[in-house]
Amino acid sequence: MCHPSWGRARAEAQHLEDLARLRRVRDRIDREYAQPLNVEALALGVHMSAGHLSRQFRKAYGESPYSYLMTRRIERAAALLRRGDLSVTEVCFAVGCSSLGTFSTRFSELFGMSPSAYRDQEANVAEGLPQCVAKQVTRPVRNREAPFRGPELA
């Protein structure tokens, strides 16, 4: 007969193993955001079903793997748009998006404006800032909340 604490220890070990797998998925998305990625391929890479991966990823990180991937792509797109030397279409494809419409919609959800308006407004805004500071200043707000761009208080 098994001791009850063995079941808890086994469940805890499985939970920690799942978290490590989820971190590997998140790291892969961060590294390969511009590649064609889908939940099935990500799940296969960590020996999980697509459904289980999606549920566990959302539970651990608060959003689906697809949403996380799109946020990474849009963050990178924003950096490319700030440079001002690429068209919106070129940026869309450079970050791994295959649909300009989906790209523009997701970008607008995160930044509160279209990619072309963002490029026009933000080009060179982070010029002269250290990369680590520029990344924080220009990071989008999640959950469809556009950043407030009102007058600054002194």
Show the helix and strand layout.
Elements: H1 4-32, H2 39-45, H3 50-61, H4 65-83, H5 88-94, H6 100-111, H7 115-122, H8 131-137
Could you name the key traits of this structure?
about 150 residues; elongated; disordered C terminus
> Poorly predicted ranges (pLDDT <50, ≥5 residues)?
143-154
Strand content: under 5%
Number of helices: 8
Shape annotation: elongated
Query: How would you spell out the order of helices and strands?
Result: HHHHHHHH
Helix content: 55-70%
Number of strands: 0
**Overall radius of gyration:** 19 Å
The CA-CA distance between the termini, in Å, is: 70 Å
How much is the average pLDDT? 85
Structural class: mainly alpha
Major sheet: size, sense and barrel closure? none
Explained architecture:
The protein is mainly α and 154 residues long. 66% of the residues lie in helices and 0% in strands. It has 8 helices and no strands. α4 crosses α6 and α4 packs across α7. The radius of gyration is 19 Å and the shape is elongated.
Nutshell version of this structure?
With 154 residues, the protein is mostly helical.
